[in-house]
Amino acid sequence: MTKVTDSLAYDCHCHILPGIDDGAADLAESLDLCRWFVAHGITEVVCTSHSTRRYPNTAETVEAAAAALQAELDKRGIALHLIPSLEYRFVPQTWPPKRLLPWKGNHILVELSLKNPEKMAPLDPEEEIRRLVREGYQPVLAHPERYLWSTPGDYDRWLAAGALFQRNLGSLEGFYGSPAQERARYLQQKGLYSFLGSDLHNRHYAEFFDTILDLEPDILPRKQVVAAIIRKGDRIFATQRGYGEWKDWWEFPGGKIEAGETPEAALVREIREELSAEISIDRLLHTVEWDYPTFHLTMNCYLCALKSEALHLNEHEAARWLDKTAIHSVKWLPADEQLLPLIIESLAN
Questions:
Q1: Which residue from 4, 62, 165, 198 could staple onto 40, CB 3.0 to 4.6 Å apart?
Q2: Domain 222-348, what fold?
Q3: Which residues make up the CATH 3.90.79.10 domain(s) of the chain?
Q4: pLDDT tens digit string along 237-272?
């Protein structure tokens, strides 16, 4: 059986904490679900219990439940690491909470009303996404394919506001019904998903997932690359592709890690090949995980500086030095675009 980890580095969406939402009913079911993760190669999960009108969980209740379940796992030798967080629904009864509980740095899983957007009033999803971004968080919108009232225009607005999209395992196979399946196909074909999550609730989910894991099209070939964010003063260096499917899109220079290379050595070599330039590497800024339509990309991105002013475009058709006011003036590759908030922040320091 193909492992979930062929498409998931970890699971960012599940409801396995016992008895605090509509997920695992008790400790016995929680332990079964944790064993299911381990059996499929997952060693780390984000416990995103609901924060809704019906299940008004808080950071404190989830932290306590995750700690208790982690103790039970450790006692039984079940090698699964739990990260406490929540799935925050935009409803005025529970949003915004007193304290947010992000995962993997600054990620916040949010959801909308599944059937009736009026239940969110007076909250506006687009504005709430923008507010999270302004406050330094990365909103991840859970299962957009399940909001049957939404339109392609809504998807565009939520993405433009700063959200990333998370697809549920099983959506493409009809687990949530044919309307959600069709929407998942549309979003998948457009390349709009950034995350795949199980949204695992109970044994029924696990049994169904066992039947589809070999069929999942999102179990993609993985490519690991490096990218150089070359800084000079208050500007960074961007290059424009001159070939292939993404011709004319902009990216940070870099490339694949060859067998036996460290990421840093690969980056030095790639910059020599692409720009005939030498760089000094400052530090790792961020690792981007991104699903393109035909492969999953892991991109280690380093802040760098040129050792000399000389460079030559050997592969790209154009290049620019961009300050923070111009950084959005070019059409970035989707994975590279995820770095822009961090880069803007670094340029301000």
A1: 4
A2: Nucleoside Triphosphate Pyrophosphohydrolase (3.90.79)
A3: 222-348
A4: 999 998 777 889 999 999 998 878 899 999 999 999
